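Example S7 (structure tokens).
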């Protein structure tokens, strides 16, 4: 007899999406008739092949509801159910980054609001891992209160707190992340075709070097080592890290099993073991902070991320808003990483994909630490994008982005979208480069005028061509903002525009 079950996300304290049909699903004995009640609403389904799914009608925001699921003599009761706004937070370690590790955690963790909640999808990389690790403190809905808030995704917490203040409805965040993962871990095999088949081929080649008889135990040893790593707030790197021989040996062993059949870093694995456990839980949208691990094969990042967006939207059968964090300023930990191409790809995706929005993090990064410790600005900026483009609030939500470039009376004039109140924090724009006729120009000035940046240099009076770069380096300090305190997106501009190549 198949036991009546619900997915793990259907737990006491859950938040359901308002104003959309509410999907419930699970397992039961073949042919069993399942009833689901929520408040005064009831829906029915019949189990087929041991599975069932149904939809309850949309509800407005509320709290203190009870969800009751019955099949014959079996009944599951889920209490303290809220209805409000639900967002899925996905990606790697900078979205996974817990509030306890945030620089402002002492103040943030004192915030108390039972209507701000977070569910962490259990980090399961392979079938049966539930028996190999302790999952008693995950897979539950936590409220924003001392003792629980510290286990929220920090970005998700600050995002939810902003939405809660503006919308005055319950806010639920579903944290579906795993540090160090490529976007290829979060899509199915059928999406990795053509040039993206590289990821599957690379994994297959890696597995040929492993012994299937010892592969699982070897990976479990590595996982225990990773579990023992210090929390992210204990690592604040003010200088590049010098790898010890012990670290090199550990990293080599990890690299060997990085793509094994039990690793979360293998392509497509977490799509099945984590993401699909919350599909098709009704959502308002998706928050995405990822890309650092795809720098090594950066040329594939754009098609891979586009494939992920298409796939995730298809799973929910709607063009869900997709709010993406541009990779923060960073240069070197134990090896140099160049995120400039990834950032440009992220901006292109946001510019030409409906419903995809980008937030800038170039002022939040650390030169030698890949994990910025201040997540509040990132959560706030994501919330502004949601408030403006999802909820229709009249707020300035977008970072200034380059609109055009022209040479006018011997001055190079750069105009910006969303440049209202353009201003500099400091004496002048930093990490701004001017190249005139192929030669870097040292003697130039930059002033801000309305929604424009004006560059002045004697060489511009006779220039045949010019190029301007702003924040176009792996690490830099972005210090130009609009009136909403949103930093200018990195850009590279060429005049005349037809020379942009």
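Recovered sequence:
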């Amino acid at each position: 007899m198949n036991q009546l079950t619900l997915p793990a996300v259907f737990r006491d304290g859950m938040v359901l999406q308002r104003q959309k049909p509410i999907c419930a699903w699970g397992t039961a004995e073949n042919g069993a008739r399942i009833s689901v009640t929520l408040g005064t609403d009831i829906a029915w389904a019949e189990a087929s092949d041991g599975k069932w799914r149904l939809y309850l009608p949309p509800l407005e925001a509320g709290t203190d509801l009870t969800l009751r699921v019955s099949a014959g003599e079996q009944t599951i009761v889920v209490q303290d159910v809220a209805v409000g706004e639900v967002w899925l937070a996905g990606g790697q370690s900078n979205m996974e980054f817990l509030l306890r590790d945030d620089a402002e955690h002492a103040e943030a963790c004192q915030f108390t609001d039972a209507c701000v909640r977070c569910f962490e999808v259990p980090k399961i990389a392979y079938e049966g891992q539930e028996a190999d690790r302790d999952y008693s403190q995950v897979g539950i809905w936590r409220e924003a209160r001392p003792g629980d808030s510290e286990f929220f995704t920090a970005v998700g917490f600050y995002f939810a707190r902003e939405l809660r203040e503006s919308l005055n409805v319950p806010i639920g965040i579903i944290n579906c992340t795993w540090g160090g993962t490529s976007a290829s871990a979060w899509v199915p095999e059928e999406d990795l075709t053509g040039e993206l088949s590289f990821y599957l081929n690379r994994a297959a080649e890696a597995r040929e070097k492993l012994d299937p008889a010892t592969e699982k135990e070897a990976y479990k040893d590595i996982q225990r080592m990773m579990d023992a790593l210090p929390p992210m707030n204990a690592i604040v790197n003010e200088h590049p890290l010098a790898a010890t021989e012990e670290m090199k040996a550990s990293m080599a062993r990890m690299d060997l099993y990085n793509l094994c059949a039990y690793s979360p870093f293998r392509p497509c694995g977490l799509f099945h073991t984590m993401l699909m456990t919350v599909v098709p839980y009704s959502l308002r949208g998706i928050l995405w902070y990822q890309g650092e691990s795809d720098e090594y094969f950066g040329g594939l990042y754009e098609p891979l991320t586009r494939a992920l967006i298409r796939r995730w939207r298809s799973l929910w059968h709607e063009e869900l808003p997709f709010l993406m964090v541009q990779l923060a300023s960073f240069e070197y930990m134990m090896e140099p990483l160049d995120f400039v191409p990834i950032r440009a790809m992220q901006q292109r995706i946001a510019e030409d994909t409906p419903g995809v929005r980008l937030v800038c993090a170039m002022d939040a990064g650390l030169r030698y630490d890949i994990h910025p410790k201040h997540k509040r600005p990132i959560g706030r900026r994501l919330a502004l994008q949601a408030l403006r483009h999802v909820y229709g609030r009249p707020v300035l939500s977008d970072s200034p982005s380059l609109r055009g470039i022209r040479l006018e009376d011997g001055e190079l004039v750069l105009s910006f979208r969303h440049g209202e109140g353009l201003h500099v924090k400091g004496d002048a724009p930093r990490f701004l480069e001017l190249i005139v006729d192929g030669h870097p120009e040292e003697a130039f000035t930059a002033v801000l005028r309305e929604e424009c940046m004006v560059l002045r240099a004697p060489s511009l009076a006779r220039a045949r061509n010019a190029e301007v770069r702003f924040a176009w380096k792996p690490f830099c300090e972005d210090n130009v903002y609009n009136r909403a305190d949103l930093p200018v997106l990195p850009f590279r501009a060429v005049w005349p525009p037809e020379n942009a190549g």
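Notes on this example. The chain has a mean pLDDT of 94.
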